Amino acid sequence: MPIPESYYAGIYWPGRKEPAEACARRAEFFFRCLSQCDPIYASWFEQANSLKKALQLQFEPTYETFLRFFGRRAYKEGKDGFSFSAWTGHEEDGRGGMVMLRCGSAAEVVQNNCLLYLPSREPDMGRVLTTSVLTEMMRALVLAWEPDWGGVISSAYRDLRDEPVGPPYTGWLMYFAHHWGVVPPLPSPVRVEPVEDKGTLVILTPERFTVDNPAHVALADEVRASLDKAGLLKESSGDRQALM
After folding, report:
1. To which H or E segment does residue 4 belong?
2. Residues 151 and 7: beta-carbon distance below 8 Å
3. Which of 29, 1, 10 is closest to 155 using CA atoms?
4. CB atoms within 10 A of CB 57
5. Is the pLDDT of residue 208 over 60?
6. For position 239, what pLDDT does the model report?
7. Which of 77, 115, 126, 228 could be joined to 83 by an S-S link, Cβ 3.0–4.6 Å?
């Protein structure tokens, strides 16, 4: 049986030092918005060395909780910044999801980022991997963390087209902050819409993007070339180290 194409949502922003209080406020807002995207994001657990222990570490994603987490040595990263991960408690492979977060750091070499691993098995996959849900997910990521760029990425397409341009990678959905550059006119059926006053969201296809569809790959290649020509696929310092 073939392994389903996998997807993740990721956003990136370099060199923005923020105290634990600011990061905790952003995290609370993000997890609250994420819980409204799909029921699988209603419960969260800290990670641990064993499944049994991790299932005992359920937490409420509140400001006070994150402030307590970011005060722990285990969640501090370097001279400044915080590193934290959580999962939804789904024991079956491909179900639920996981968040990996790095925030508050002034470092340029390894970027701040927030990665959300998306389900790869039904029925979660069918519900979550839709443009309506993923659009709200990207809005939650952008409004909470105010990144430079990000998107919902097909790992298969990323691996297929890693060179010569990118990151930013070309995704099923892509986000560019206003200061990153202006999104050029793009071919149908690509949809472009604002994320409040933060930036621009690009949605390649209304249906699930997949490399098994030659039309999707051709469209992604065309959009990729347009974005590169417009200067949006510029590599910033530390991108290679920060990306999965």
Report:
1. none
2. no
3. 10
4. 14
5. yes
6. 45
7. 77
Query: For residue range 78-95, what is the model confidence (pLDDT) as tens digits?
Result: 788 999 999 999 877 777
pTM of the model: 0.91
Helix residue ranges per DSSP H, 71-178:
124-128, 131-145, 155-160
Q: Both ends of the chain: CA-CA distance in Å?
A: 26
The encoded tokens of residue 8 equal 């993740």
Using an 8 Å Cβ cutoff, are 116 and 141 in contact?
yes
**H helices of the chain, where?**
20-35, 51-54, 63-70, 124-128, 131-145, 155-160, 214-229, 239-242
Q: Residue 216 CA to chain centroid, in angstroms?
A: 21
Under DSSP, the state recorded for 89 is: -
Neighbours of 179 (CB within 10 A): 8
Q: State the pairing for strand pair 149-154/7-13.
A: antiparallel
Determine the 3-state secondary structure of 22 from DSSP: helix
Instruction: Say if residues 13 and 111 touch (Cβ distance below 8 Å).
Output: yes
